[in-house]
């Protein structure tokens, strides 16, 4: 039998257009939100059996779309997100819908109230399309976890190569956007959980500084370091979404190349092909007129230890504060650990060593968290600011991570990323697609200045000079016998 070759990319649909273009079409009645939501639901039906990015669809989405259509027909649109479908990571509370953080322990009674960020989305007229899968508990359960896997949603897969990982923890949000299931999605990040899946799934993400968006109603790791952010096929779409949610305008145009000075950081231990691709992007930026110089930054081990110790100390009070508002859920971290041990699915693939480590901390240990946090944040910011000043650059750029690894039955390999330094510093990060290694996307992250407004024009310029988008060719079946449910 002749090998039919790889599957053809799916044809672009309504939902694959830029969000600003969709908004104009909705305002002019050239397009209805009902048609747009239908296109998204059809794409979910078509490709999600393979990608497994969507954990739950909101049955009220068609009614939300009809309400948006009535507003547009009356000339009473609520703004550029009115009628635009958005998927939400399933650690973000939605009243009456899912909101499990991937854990079967939260799958019983949905929350009674929306997270504050969802309230803002609804006030802007966005259509809550559904919830996306994630690495369970935001990837803060085990040191040997599997990215993109949860006991509720199973294994999310990379839409460009479904035998490969989508990374995490915002795996479902990144994979769904990459596969055209929605024009926008929200995810969360503590360290890398937005930018890393964006990088390996070939989409853009904005990780704002902590506090930019409210985290009330979001299953936490650390209320100090957690943040929410948008993912989209294009950076301008993500910036538009964030501008609506924050109520402040954000730059939407690339900086003139001649005004940009970037420092290219090759992270020690990063996959060589990711470093090479970042260097190729730097060469294209130089050819366009930007200044890109190599920079060296070394992350002190004790700074990283301080950051992890602070996270562990912050986790229990952050989680238990959230759990008090979830009737039917375990009330304490100890109850979560005990319930996981009784559950027939939760611990089948990996353990819960991080949860257990956090549970063993004493009140005295947790009292050290503010000092550890201040020290690690001060040192991380000093590393960034010193590099910016010493090399005379405005922003830093680095490969986000190496390409996605092949999904296997064991724990994921250790992979270097560039996300930890800005995460510890509490600085914003913007991730954009840079190119491909074979069929696998690789992204770059830009960070440095404390204000997102200073960062976005350079990131938009970097995106413009990437290798360009491709459409994932999602096959009709997963080319691997390993299913992970």
From TrEMBL:
<feature type="domain" description="Amidase">
    <location>
        <begin position="35"/>
        <end position="456"/>
    </location>
</feature>
<dbReference type="InterPro" id="IPR036928">
    <property type="entry name" value="AS_sf"/>
</dbReference>
<protein>
    <submittedName>
        <fullName>Amidase family protein</fullName>
    </submittedName>
</protein>
<dbReference type="Pfam" id="PF01425">
    <property type="entry name" value="Amidase"/>
</dbReference>
<dbReference type="InterPro" id="IPR023631">
    <property type="entry name" value="Amidase_dom"/>
</dbReference>
<feature type="region of interest" description="Disordered">
    <location>
        <begin position="463"/>
        <end position="485"/>
    </location>
</feature>
